[in-house]
Amino acid sequence: MSKTLVICDNEFLSTLYVMNLEVYLATKAELVTTIEAGIAIHKAKKNFDLIISLDTINKRDAFKEINEYRGSYGVKTPFIRVGGDEDTDIDGKTFAVSSRYNIQSILKKSASILGVTAKQMAEMQMGAYYPISMAPVEGLTKAPCNLYLSVDSQYKMLARRDDTIDESIKNAKATGVDTIFVRSTDRLVMVNNVSLKLIERITEALKNSSGMSIDKKVEVLNDGFEFAAANLFSTEEIRQEMAEIATASAKVMSDVVKDNPQLKGLLATMLSNKSGYIFTHSMISSYVANHIIKNVTWGGEGQSDKINFVLFFHDIYLSPIYLKHPQLKYEKALLDNPALSEKEKDIIMNHAKLAAELVVTYKRCPMGADVLIKHHHGMKKGSGFANKYPEDLSPLSKVLLIAEAFVEIFVATTDKKEKVEMKLIIPKLIEEFVSPSYIKIIQTLVNLPL
Ligand SMILES: [Fe+2]
Ligand SMILES: [Fe+2]
Prior knowledge:
Elements: E1 3-7, H1 11-25, E2 28-32, H2 35-45, E3 50-54, E4 56-57, E5 60-61, H3 62-73, E6 79-82, E7 88-91, E8 94-97, H4 103-114, H5 118-123, E9 129-133, H6 134-138, E10 147-151, E11 154-159, H7 166-174, E12 179-183, H8 187-207, H9 214-230, H10 236-259, H11 263-272, H12 277-295, H13 301-314, H14 319-324, H15 331-334, H16 342-359, H17 369-374, H18 395-415, H19 422-433, H20 436-443
Parallel strand pairs: 1-2, 1-3, 3-6, 6-8
Antiparallel strand pairs: 4-5, 7-8, 9-12, 10-11
The structure holds fe (ii) ion (FE2) (2 copies).
């Protein structure tokens, strides 16, 4: 069995990495949370086949420090840097995957390094029992399937399915156990349950975020957004739980937006958290929408939460496309991009409609959220992008449209390294939306704190 060293200080991500590597690539993953521990364990054992590390660990440049170690000790172990600007092969032994939540890419790269093909994985002769590290199991309170320990080459039952396992896991860990076993046929049950548990933990973290720093709040929000996006096509159970993350996120987004007196500050936090485009533009849209709602006569608290819930889901169907093409940005421009397939373009055309159809399945969907999502590109049926915006949309839909249009102009301006000035942005918005009911809303942006 191959061995992979995972260096990661994000508790949600480390669970995801370890579990996926073990279940899909049959590699034994060892997890550490600091750069020092990573280097020490590598020095002591030296028999790892692969090192995977986040690019930033405890705010330090992990990539640089680990690479210095590899350079000065002539370490040949292949290395995958996760996070950063691009997906690239740096040299024959060093690779980069940009999105920390792009488990598929991380697995694909790891598989090629470890010499595992999909075919091999499918055909791999597995024993009756399959090993899984403690790290992903530790977060579970109930056994999703029977769990076993290996004692003198025999498998001894640790817990039956549905047993409460807090204590037994703790006890096993105390005696030095670092691996438990499940029946090989139960592997995917385990993956699904660990994912569900992660959603629960992220939701908990969001709900308990009131004492956290803005930085930490943004980190957990980012976890929620990216996790939901990455798991959109997994099981129905997981898809249902996303409504919980979204509801909890909506509140925290309001918090973060209120805590930031200026857009500049919010942007800096997003940048230092290396947030993806969908999360970043949703957060800026939330900031702008919140400002508008505060400045119109009919605005109220509930509307901010509703808009945030909507923002969580509105572009979720675009996530797989952004993961595959991390350099892409503006939604409308995606349609003309020759790098995208017809199937991808079809999703781009219909992403508003698809997301609206997703949220109506949620029991706790805020009233009218589906309609807001469907209309977020100005098309009544949620298909395509409007050139001329309809007059008879709800005021909140208009707020959302304007907030998103602002973000596009804002991002384009900062990308060109030009100064962002409301007196330049407002005329552009007026030109785009034309009619008085929209212009009235646009005028509230005059005093938007940049
Ligand atoms: Fe969109
Ligand atoms: Fe959007």
